[in-house]
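Notes, p. 3: input format for complexes.
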Amino acid sequence: MTTAKLNLNGNDYEFSVVTGSEGEVGIDIKSLRSASGAITLDPGYGNTGSCESAITFIDGEEGILRYRGYPIEELAEQSTFEEVMHLLIYGHLPNASELQSFEGKLQEQAHVHEDVKQLIDGFPANAHPMAVINALVAALPGFESDASDDEQDIIRLIARVKTLAAWAYRRSAGLPYVASAPGLSYSADFMHMMFGSQGAKPSVSPEVESAINKLLILHADHEQNCSTSTVRMVGSSGATLYAAIAAGIGALSGPLHGGANQAVIEMLDMIDKDGGDHDKYMAMAKDKSSGFRLMGFGHRVYKNFDPRARILKRSADSVLEALGVNDPMLNIAKQLEQVALSDSHFVDRRLYPNVDFYSGIIYRALNIPTEMFTVMFVLGRVPGWIAHWREMRLDPTTRIHRPRQIYTGSTKRSVERLSER
Ligand code: CMC
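Output follows (421 residues plus carboxymethyl coenzyme *A):
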């Protein structure tokens, strides 16, 4: 067995080395503090493995992403979101009867308690739908009358978040709520609740259904990113699935994470309105004092093309063509990408377009309003969060997540009287 050695203050310590199934190497430092009194310091966790996981593999150098061993390209082309959800959560692609049962349960559980409508109605119409969906998911257990059961909660949450996401939009648009329709796929049912009418026959086109299906698959998991780590962190305390996922939604909302998809379109719009002057914005992105970054570019793990961005770029072309949409944003995005990929600031730092760069252009073509983009990310990411939460819960070695710190504050002192301060 390989080991790693550390010499600290003249003392030698030895640690075992863990190797993953794709050859990734980790030094197991679980005994470091009890043996040496020291801890590791890794702000932003760029070098810290928080767990062992069998769900998703990323090779950031090569631009590879696989769910349970299956390449993202194959899943995006050949699978339904329901199959991918089953794959992520239960570890294998479902056979025909497993799929039928899974889809049936999701359809049965898509209804939400009638009183939840009052909660949604209580939000101002201009509330951001991410704030609404975050609050609704946190509130859901308050509306479930029977005892909590992990496997049941998983189905309920996946099914109901689709209804809640669509209703968050209906509220913001001042439109009446549309109930889930039986017999539709997850993607088609969501679009029916977004844009259909109560009682009318659902009429989601196959092109639209397929575009949503692909987007949801591409967002479904991404190993220990900020929101997934948040879900694991909150779940490690024994909090409910709903509490953990609500926390994940909060983490995802930030512009450096899922909120980037909204920020990209706002940025492209700003560039367009400003006369399409890429150079000005490139200069700002390179100047740290400007506070401006090229949204949809860069990634902690990918130092090569994000494979999801590759698929989405192609998909943007085909979806816009299939729907007969001509969106000038697509050209602005492509031009900006071209300029960035030949600029030394981006080349030297290996900054490439990420998943958020082209997704918004597809959402726009599907009539999804900009403020709903990050909610779409939530819909896609819920099964990934759940898969990690479940993996953690089923692991008997899980302990509450509780990092340490290096304290840099004042040493002991006494409280001064008010007159002396
Ligand atoms: N525009 C300009 N410069 C950038 C950008 C960017 N988008 N991203 C990174 N850099 C520079 C950064 O200034 C730094 O330069 P230097 O080495 O001179 O200090 C270097 O590249 C490394 O950046 P970092 O901030 O240390 O990298 P990180 O791994 O901490 O952050 C990131 C990753 C995704 C937060 C960052 O690249 C970023 O802010 N991108 C824009 C926001 C975005 O698109 N987020 C979506 C991420 S993918 C989907 C998701 O996670 O939800």
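The chain is about 50% helix and 5% strand.
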